[in-house]
Design a protein that fits this description.
248 residues, mainly beta, Jelly Rolls, eight-stranded antiparallel β-sheet, globular, binds (2S)-amino(carbamoylamino)ethanoic acid, binds manganese (II) ion
Amino acid sequence: MSDLFGCTRTVVKRNYALITPDGFVPSVLPGWKNAAVIINIAPVLNGPRFTQIQFTLDKNSSGIGNTAALEHFYYVLAGDCTAQLTGKKHELTAGSYLFLPPKTNFKFSGATKGTKLIAFQKKFEALTGQKTPGVICGHADAIKGNPFLGNEDARLQVLLPDQPAFDMAVNIFTYQPGATLPFVETHIMEHGLLMLQGQGVYRLDADHYPVTAGDVIWMGSYCPQWFVAMGKTPASYIYYKDVNRSPL
Ligand code: UGY
Ligand code: MN
């Protein structure tokens, strides 16, 4: 990419945004101390119904709070840290993830320098007849990647249980070079996405963008979307979507 001043690949449109790391700016999030916090996606951005946040931690960092009416999902991108919940401590390493239901106390600390987390947070919407999910702690290495609609070269790891009690899904999609989403998807669910590795071209609405590791994308409801992995190494992204609830 050209280093020419005044240039960026970032674009913010009505129903999608591509936000590239050259433009990330930290802000303050109550409860988080000695941490670089970048709120990549939030409702003020043309209406997402969730937030997507990146945290960079070191030895002195802490993040303390209660999820209240929200559910939080944390994934460790690099490094390690501890999450202390009421009555239980979780040691997290790169690839670990933690789902916190509403009304959960948490304290993140004990990070090694440069530990990076991504979080997705949204208001939990209960479903009549379904119990509110409990805490889930898992690791991506333990989740099998299944061929997406029969394509062995495009594999999906589904990190949270695919059950009606959950109103959020977080998946990791890994594509071999040349593999694609099979068709241009247009759906009610919205997405928040972080490119984890590799590169490719993302179609958003009627536009096509080169994307690479570190890029963030918001796709609003009904934003036409498609991806092709390019280059010599696999491309993968972690992404959020809202699921299992009536629109009205
Ligand atoms: O789950 C999804 O909707 C996924 N196939 N979308 C995407 O990768 N853009
Ligand atoms: Mn999709």
